[in-house]
Amino acid sequence: xxxxxxxxxxxxxxxxxxxxxxxxxxxxxxxxxxxxxxxxxxxxxxxxxxxxxxxxxxxxxxxxxxxxxxxxxxxxxxxxxxxxxxxxxxxxxxxxxxxxxxxxxxxxxxxxxxxxxxxxxxxxxxxxxxxxxxxxxxxxxxxxxxxxxxxxxxxxxxxxxxxxxxxxxxxxxxxxxxxxxxxxxxxxxxxxxxxxxxxxxxxxxxxxxxxxxxxxxxxxxxxxxxxxxxxxxxxxxxxxxxxxxxxxxxxxxxxxxxxxxxxxxxxxxxxxxxxxxxxxx
Length: 281
What we know:
Helix content: over 70%
Number of helices: 11
Order of helices and strands: HHEEHHHHHHHHH
Shape: globular
Radius of gyration: 22 Å
Number of domains: 1
Distance between the termini: 40 Å
Structural class: mainly alpha
CATH superfamily: MetI-like
Number of strands: 2
CATH architecture: Orthogonal Bundle
Mean pLDDT: 88
CATH class: Mainly Alpha
Largest sheet: 2 strands, antiparallel
Low-confidence stretches: none
CATH topology: MetI-like fold
């Protein structure tokens, strides 16, 4: 078997694998759009649920989801980026740093329901935050920290070492080098971790059920200690606990959640692309 034939077989296998992965995704998206597009309207997006959540809209759930996503980003990104900076720029290669890296990798695979129970025990009960936006955002932030740390560390490692050496040779301190040279060039990769965090934070159900989600709240939150409705938990509720609700409403809720996640991700992806084009290497 010559090399050309082997290459064609490899390319064919990769193309077949791609098709196998993409076909179910497009089928799911098509089903959601086909059944849920009819539910979309201005009233559906800007009013609260009524008639036992069988009618009305999703506005409180949309606002609650955005609050949780913003809170998770605010808490997770600074901690995750600074942890990545310490691991990549300051920490020496010791047993402790190897254990920390191993722990981060393992934490990324912990089921979300475990994080939900942890958040309930620590934030809701022990710290007495109650079932609130603050407790839910902190729980989501901790759940997404491993992804942000890993993505940020890889982005920092990708910055060429000569950039650091030239800066240090000019008498610039290490922190100034990191702040003005390393971080600006690593931002596109860091945004990758943030995009993944936003997707997961917006779509998770188990952690918010334990820490923040309310079954029905027609009003908007008044503070970080308020409970909120959220699209994932609302979708779970209307799909499993509300009888005689139309299929269109269920799929419409799923479609709104999907569009919300894709919209936020698209903004971050466009921003990342612009930053990559502005990069000098």
